[in-house]
């Protein structure tokens, strides 16, 4: 397990591909696959831009990285899981958010995916554990995530990892 290398083209391509894969696990019928893939592309572009900007800002003549915009996380990390053969096997994007009810900072797993051929090998569980370790290291009050109701395999993994449903969001398309 390691952090994403922003200057590694293969790492960047892997994360882009994995974020486009996440809608493939099933999603509500009122969304189209095209909508979800486009949104994932927007999110990964913004994420990688932020990480690259912070990296450059932190290393340019000792200057500080620019302050994040109001809606950007104060801290975030992209974790890359590798198999025994040093093959990229999965990733998790974790960021700080303010909990809506508790009004305290928590870590939120924004996206987590296992590469095809690596499912069922403990990669997802290891990524959740590493996200929790990151949250603890940042002294955050909890760990949250969102998951499609149809993604029963992921829901079972998250529950085995100690996460529990907190709220069910419901929708009616008008």
Describe this structure in words.
This protein has 174 residues and is α+β, with helices and mostly antiparallel strands. It has a single domain (2-160), classed as Gcn5-related N-acetyltransferase (GNAT) (Aminopeptidase, 3-Layer(aba) Sandwich), CATH 3.40.630. Helices cover 37% and strands 19% of the residues. It has four helices and five strands; from the N terminus they run βααβββαβα. The chain has helices at residues 9-21, 33-59, 123-137, 152-160; strands at residues 2-3, 76-82, 88-98, 105-114, 143-145. It has a five-stranded mixed beta sheet with strand order 1-2-3-4-5, with helices on both faces. Strand 2 and strand 3 (88-98) form a beta hairpin. Helix 1 runs antiparallel to helix 2 (33-59). It is globular. The termini are far apart. Mean pLDDT is 85; it is low at 58-72.
């Amino acid at each position: 397990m390691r952090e994403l290398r922003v200057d590694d083209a293969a790492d960047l391509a892997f994360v882009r591909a994995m974020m486009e894969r996440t809608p493939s696990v099933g999603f509500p019928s009122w969304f189209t696959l095209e909508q979800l893939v486009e949104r994932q592309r927007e999110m990964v572009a913004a994420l990688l831009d932020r990480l690259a900007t912070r990296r450059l800002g932190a290393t340019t003549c000792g200057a500080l990285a620019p302050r994040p915009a109001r809606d950007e996380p104060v801290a975030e990390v992209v974790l890359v899981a590798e198999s025994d053969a040093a093959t990229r096997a999965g990733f998790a994007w974790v960021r700080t958010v303010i909990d809506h009810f508790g009004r305290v900072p928590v870590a939120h797993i924004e996206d987590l995916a296992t590469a095809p051929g690596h499912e069922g090998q403990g990669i997802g569980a290891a990524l959740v554990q590493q996200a929790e370790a990151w949250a603890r290291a940042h002294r955050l009050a909890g760990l949250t995530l969102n998951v499609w109701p149809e993604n029963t395999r992921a829901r079972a993994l998250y529950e085995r990892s100690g996460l529990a449903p907190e709220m069910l969001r419901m929708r009616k398309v008008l």
